[in-house]
Design goal:
Elements: H1 2-11, H2 13-83, H3 87-94, H4 100-149, H5 154-158
Length: 159
């Protein structure tokens, strides 16, 4: 029985070698593919985490900016009221002077100017604060990323 098995193996030696090489190649190719898939998944997970960190940092920066704008609005309102004071004209109109029409025109001009200045200055305040805080926040994010990793990542610089 051992002799017949040995002769069978000798007769089909090339087929066994070829089949073994094929099975081994498929096995090694499968392991290589698994390793590459794992590397791609890890890279995508790292990119997702980095994107989530950048998004969180940006949203936090926007919340800070909104709170800063809200805290500065009373100061802005007081400055506008001080420079465009309509209260004196209103009290003057209540005394029924002779030049009532001229005072009324001045009051309309000051009121309209006050409204336009309030809208414009609020918009400018928001824009300037957002620009300044986003620039500062970007530098802080880069510094934190560099200090944590010890090297500059390409995604951090693109932020």
């Amino acid at each position: 029985m051992l002799m017949s098995t040995w002769s069978f193996l000798k007769r089909h030696k090339r087929k066994f070698v070829f089949a073994g090489a094929l099975v081994g190649g498929v096995y090694l190719l499968g392991k290589y593919a698994q390793r590459k898939i794992r590397e791609i998944q890890e890279r995508e997970a790292a990119e997702y985490i980095a994107q989530a960190r950048r998004q969180y940092h940006f949203e936090s920066n926007q919340r800070t900016c909104n709170m800063t704008v809200l805290s500065m609005l009373p100061t802005l309102r007081d400055a506008i009221i001080q420079h465009l004071n309509s209260e004196s004209l209103t009290t003057l109109l209540k005394t029924k002077p002779a030049n009532k029409l001229e005072i009324w025109k001045d009051l309309k001009i000051i009121s309209f100017t006050r409204s336009i200045v309030a809208v414009y200055s609020t918009c400018m305040l928001v824009v300037l604060l957002r620009i300044q805080l986003n620039i500062i926040g970007g530098y802080i994010y880069l510094d934190n990323s560099i200090s944590k990793n010890g090297l500059v990542c390409v995604q951090c610089v693109q932020y």
